[in-house]
Amino acid sequence: MNTSLHLTALEADLNHFNPQVRAEALSKLAELAQNGAILTIPESCVANMHCHTFFSFNAYGHSPSSLAWLARRRGIKLMGIVDFDVLDGVGEFLEACDLLGLRGSAGIETRVFIPEFATREINSPGEPGISYHMGIGFASGQAPESVAHLLAGFRRRAAQRNQSVVERVNAYLSPVIVDYERDVLPLTPAGTATERHIVQAYIRAADRTTTDMTSFWADKLQLPYEKIAALLQDLSGFQDLVRVRLIKRGGVGYVEPDSANFPTLKEFHAFIQACGALPCAAWLDGTTPGEQDIEELLELLVERGVVALNIIPDRNWNVPDPELRSLKVVNLHKVVQLARRMALPINAGTEMNSFGQKIVDEFEVPEMAPLRQDFLDGAHFIYGHTALQRAFGLGYQSTWAADHMPTRPARNHFYTEVGYRLAPGLSSMERLRNLDPSLPPKKILSSLSQASIRP
After folding, report:
1. Which of 47, 80, 100, 416 could form a disulfide with 379 if both were Cys (CB 3.0 to 4.6 A apart)?
2. Which residues have a Cβ under 8 Å from the Cβ of 418 and sit 6 or more positions away?
């Protein structure tokens, strides 16, 4: 057997839409790695805690199992998944982490309406009052019965927005049209599409329907023929262009946001907390009116239940324009300092839902090095919470945590320590489940096998 071809085939199966195919491929890969038949990079203290899977959109097609394997092969110590409007990948990812010995976490992302900022753009470009918002640290993909209707509502709202987009774009691009159920949903493993899936469907439809793709898109996007011809050589860049010109603000498919289109902050937080997970604010880059008032915004969100802050570091420093880069780096350092002061652990990652985004951040570049420990501590914090929540429901939101550690700084310290001390894998989770859940925090920490060693 050609080992290289066998490995390639197994890794391709990790992204199959059939979960059984994915599970079998991961099991075989884990066995090969355990036996030394596959070389993996030794673990290094880096983390990517914000990776979208193909249950929303991953630019490279990665499933939850594939992302866990990617981290294992690349020596990434901690990884977290986040998907738009669904928890479909949570169980698969956490089980893959157990099998592969990876420290993992899982979350959900959506857009919410914040009435207090209704006149200020926050982190959703061109949409005042609308904010990308997250829940992190889920222990299961199954929502409690009391809030299952809220999760179904997130999915339903997303589908309704998508269908409105398709109706508008069909009218503009005709005779190039798509059917949402026939052309868009099959691009997803579980029937939850994003704008990026819609764009893919239109590009495929144009390829089927037109005899001159370049002329068609030059006309519809109102750009020179030569520019479209060049862009079509870079499909990922072309997809981004189509999305911006047709679906985002100013495009024919744009759906004007209002409070009915998105869940409220209150109901999203109620859902997250009922699942034992953590409401998490999301930072863009500090250049919008809302984020220029970031202290006001975070104080409001903390009052409503937020306990962590998400940052995508790469777009805050890896910017070609020197002046803009300098501004964004200053903003990044300021918001991290604010997060320290407000006791908000940081969930940082690269997203991976757009072509060109990195597998893991560059922690050692000068712009990032002073913040490295904040990002690593935040990653270990959410892993520690996730492990204890999975083991016996003693996560950050538990009554046990509130009774023993009534302040956020105390809880942050405890779950971060758990994250550093607790080895990953099935055997560690089994030992954790055998602990007495009535133990106080200090006893829990002293029972964990690894010393608390921070880089």
Report:
1. 47
2. 384, 385, 387, 388, 444, 445, 448
Report how far residue 40's alpha carbon sits from residue 33's, in angstroms, rounded to the nearest whole number. Answer: 7
What is the enclosing helix (H) or strand (E) of 74? helix 64-74
Indicate the SS3 state at residue 311.
strand
Contact 216, 246 (CB under 8 A): no
Q: What dotted CATH number matches 40-143+275-447?
A: 3.20.20.140
Q: Where are the domains of the chain?
A: 1-39, 40-143+275-447, 152-246
**What does each of the 455 residues of the chain score in pLDDT, given as a tens digit?**
566 778 999 999 999 999 999 999 999 999 999 998 998 999 999 999 999 999 999 999 999 999 999 999 999 999 999 999 999 999 999 999 999 999 999 999 999 999 999 999 999 988 899 999 999 999 999 999 999 999 999 999 999 999 999 999 999 999 999 999 999 999 999 999 999 999 999 999 999 999 999 999 999 999 999 999 998 888 888 999 999 999 988 899 988 776 677 889 999 999 999 999 999 999 999 999 999 999 999 999 999 999 999 999 999 999 999 999 999 999 999 999 999 999 999 999 999 998 889 999 999 999 999 999 999 999 999 999 999 999 999 999 999 999 999 999 999 999 999 999 999 999 999 989 999 999 999 999 998 865 445 55
Distance of CA 91 to the CA centre of its chain: 15
**Which residue in this structure is represented by tokens 């501004």?**
327
